[in-house]
Structures are given as structure tokens and as C-alpha cells.
Amino acid sequence: MSRAIHRLLDGPVEDIAPALLGMRLRTELPAGPTEVVISEVEAYAGERDPASHAYRGRTPRNVSMFGARGTLYVYRSYGIHWCMNIVTGGQNDPSAVLLRAGRPAVGADVMARRRGRPDHLADGPGKLTQALGVTGDADGTSVFGGGPVELLPGPGRRGQIVASPRVGISKAVAWPWRFILVDG
DNA sequence: GGCAAGATCCTCT
DNA sequence: GAGGATCTTGCCA
């Protein structure tokens, strides 16, 4: 099972990103288990992508992007929020997929408590990490088990995948590497 | 050592 | 629809 997921993360990041749509992301923390179905992602192609944090090579912050396939790269955004990526490249290829949004599947009450509101639980990068209880502590851990965040097969992908330009960046803005799962 | 910008979210007008 | 919160990184002096 996890072997199939491992194989799924093999290939060009712009192919892997849409394949992650519909998969589940699970955390099990003292507050209780929480799980979302991934509904929006963006691909970042490491050193060949001007918008990637790894474009200028390895730094103390992005060292996780240079880790093994399936490593989490969690960074602080705007000094307030946490954003979560899954590394797809492996050694010497810091490509990663930014997880932008998900649909709550398990533990919506826990998410609501963490978010401090009952709605808009995980419909943005910062909200997704907050709802799942993911912080910088998860940076560098693996999503293949053993870490605080686990990537699991989805309930089967329903709906349609729509590609559009990425959000919130100022370079290579025209690359249509944002993938959204639209319910059918 | 200082400064500007950033893969965002929330509140107020 | 616009602006503030809040802090880390990376670049330049």
C-alpha cells in the first residue's frame, strides 16, 4: 500500500502534484485524529523553478527539500502561518508539492477547535496546517509513516482536475502548476 | 548589522 | 475591497 504511494511520488513534480489530489492526509495528535482529502496543490520544481524556495540552492531553512522523497518541508509564511510541502524529487532534486487545501474527513470538531471557528477549516495553506496541527516540528519528517503526518490512499478520486496559474508568487507566475480538485 | 520581501489569513470599512 | 499582523530569510553594506 505505502509502496504504491512511494512509487506515485516518482517522476516530474508537475505530474505528481495532480496525482496527490484525492489522497488523504492524516495526523494523530493528543487532541485526536484528524484527516483531510487533498483538494488543492501546487508544484514547485526546485532549482529550475524561480518561484521555488530551493531555486537558489540549499539554505538552513529549505534543507528538508533536499531530503528523501516523501519528506515534509514545513516553513513559516509571513511570520504567522505554517505551510506544508511534500518532497518529491529525492537526493539532489529539491522538487516539492505545496499542499494548499483539503476537505475535512475525520475530526472536524478537533479542527474547528484548533482553528477557533467552525467553517473554512482547511481551505488555504495556512489553514490546512493549523487544522491538522502541523507546525515546524513536523519539518523533515516522512509522510510514509513514523512521523506526525501520514499520506494515505484516497477514497477514490471523484471529480475533475483543473490546472491554473500558481498563487501568491511573483516569479514564473504563468506556469499552470496549481491543481484543484473540482467535485463532480 | 540592517532592511526589504514573502508560496497568508482575518477584520474592518 | 483594502490593510494590518508578525517574523524569518536572504541580500547588501
Structure, explained:
- Helix 3 (108-115) packs across helix 4.
- The chain has helices spanning 2-8, 13-20, 108-115, 125-132, and strands at residues 24-29, 32-44, 72-77, 81-87, 96-106, 149-152, 160-164, 178-182.
- Strands 1, 2, 3, 4, 5, 6, 7 and 8 form an 8-stranded antiparallel beta sheet that branches.
- The longest helix has 8 residues, at 13-20.
- Helix content is 17%, strand content 31%.
- With 184 residues, the chain is an alpha+beta fold.
- The protein is globular and about 40 Å long.
Q: How many strands?
A: 8
Sheet bearing the most strands, described?
Answer: 8 strands, antiparallel
Q: Stretches where pLDDT falls below 50 for ≥5 residues? A: none
Number of helices: 4
Classify the secondary structure makeup into a structural class: alpha+beta
As a percent range, the share of helical residues equals 10-25%
Terminal CA distance: 26 Å
Output mean pLDDT.
Answer: 93
- Sequence of secondary-structure elements: HHEEEEEHHEEE
Residue share in β-strands: 25-35%
General form: globular
What is the alpha-carbon Rg in Å?
Answer: 15 Å
